[in-house]
Structures are given as structure tokens and as C-alpha cells.
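Students often ask why inverse folding is considered easier than folding. One informal answer: many sequences map to the same fold, so there is more than one right answer. In these notes we will look at a single instance of the problem. The structure comes first.
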């Protein structure tokens, strides 16, 4: 057990070192201009080792941002007596308020993502994955079929809010307490506006 724990810690440190090395190169040379072989050389590891940790270049950038089902995990942990909207809101807030990476690195990643289309597309895929998992979790909570339109659209609306909140909170500077207050204020403001003026639902009216 101790040996396995040591291996896992060493692997985690290696992953962090590789990510930081790649970020520095991406910012210095540009994402598209940086080759995986250059990342391996700068990190002092073999190319095969690099690919074992990160099979593709975009994963080097997106790895720290990946949700990995955390939103759904938070949602499933909410009390059964909690209303669906409150459960989803609390799950979202927990996701934003739980620190995953340091703020400086987050800003560096955002700078690279904003400068290259490939990682932006990869990040969008992360939102889609989380949304798909959430569709199933909502249907399970309500005892409805997985393809129930209410469950599907509720999950997609939540995912859209998650993406929008990520954009609004990107690049915020301050300590953790200030950051948490900022997220809560933004979330309250956005959800209040949505409640006061819900988005229009497209309707089809055939010409007569």
C-alpha cells in the first residue's frame, strides 16, 4: 500500500511538472508551434513517457480543467428532498468553489486556450461530456426515461450555465475567500436575471 501510494505521488508530481513545462512552452512559442517532442525535452523525460501520461497535446492543456464527472457527483450527493433546481444550483456552486488548480495556472491555461482553436474545441468537448452524464443523472433522480425531453433540456441548460459561469469568472484575481464571494455574486446575478426574464423558447408557427 505504501509503495503504491509513493508511486501515485511520484506520478502526480510528474504530471504536474509536465503540465507546467508545456504551459511555459505554449506561452513562449505558441500552442500550435510547440511539438510534443519539445515538451518532453524541456521536461527532461522521454517522448514515450510523455505520451504515456498525455496521449495528445490538447490533454496537456485541458487536463487541469477536466470535470471528470464532478458536477454529476455533486448532484447525486444532494439530498433527495431538495428540489431539482436547488440541487442543480448547489451542485454547480460546489463545483466552482472547490479549488482544483491554483489561480495563476488557471489564468495561464486560459491565455493559451484563448489563442488556439484546437484546445477551445477540446474544452467544449468536456462540457458536452459533463452534460451527457447530467442528463442521465437527472432522469434517474426523477424516475424518467433517459431521453425524456425535460431531463435532456434541463441538463443542457445547466451545462450552458456552467460554461457561461466559467467565462464570467475567468481571470478573477484575489484570495480564495474573495474568489468564492465573486462566484456566488455572479451566480446569484445570472440566475436572478434568468428567473426575471427566462430565455425565449423557439416555437414553430407555420404560415397559413
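Output (designed amino acids):
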Amino acid at each position: 500500500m505504501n509503495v503504491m501510494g509513493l508511486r501515485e505521488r511520484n506520478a502526480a508530481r510528474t504530471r504536474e511538472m509536465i503540465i507546467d513545462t508545456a504551459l511555459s512552452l505554449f506561452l513562449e512559442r505558441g500552442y500550435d508551434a510547440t511539438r510534443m517532442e519539445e515538451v518532453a525535452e524541456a521536461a527532461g523525460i522521454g517522448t514515450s513517457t510523455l505520451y504515456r501520461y498525455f496521449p495528445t497535446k490538447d490533454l496537456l492543456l485541458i487536463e487541469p480543467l477536466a470535470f471528470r464527472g464532478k458536477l454529476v457527483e455533486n448532484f447525486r450527493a444532494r439530498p433527495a428532498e431538495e428540489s431539482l433546481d436547488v440541487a442543480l444550483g448547489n451542485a454547480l456552486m460546489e463545483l466552482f468553489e472547490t479549488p482544483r488548480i491554483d489561480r495563476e495556472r488557471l489564468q495561464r491555461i486560459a491565455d493559451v486556450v484563448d489563442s488556439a482553436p484546437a484546445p477551445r474545441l477540446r474544452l467544449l468537448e468536456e462540457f458536452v461530456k459533463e452534460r451527457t452524464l447530467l442528463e442521465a443523472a437527472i432522469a434517474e433522480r426523477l424516475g424518467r426515461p433517459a431521453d425524456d425531453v425535460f431531463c435532456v433540456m434541463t441538463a443542457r441548460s445547466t451545462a450552458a450555465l456552467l460554461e457561461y459561469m466559467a467565462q464570467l469568472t475567468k481571470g478573477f484575481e484575489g484570495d480564495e475567500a474573495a474568489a468564492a464571494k465573486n462566484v456566488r455574486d455572479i451566480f446569484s446575478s445570472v440566475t436572478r436575471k434568468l428567473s426575471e426574464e427566462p430565455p425565449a423558447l423557439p416555437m414553430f408557427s407555420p404560415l397559413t
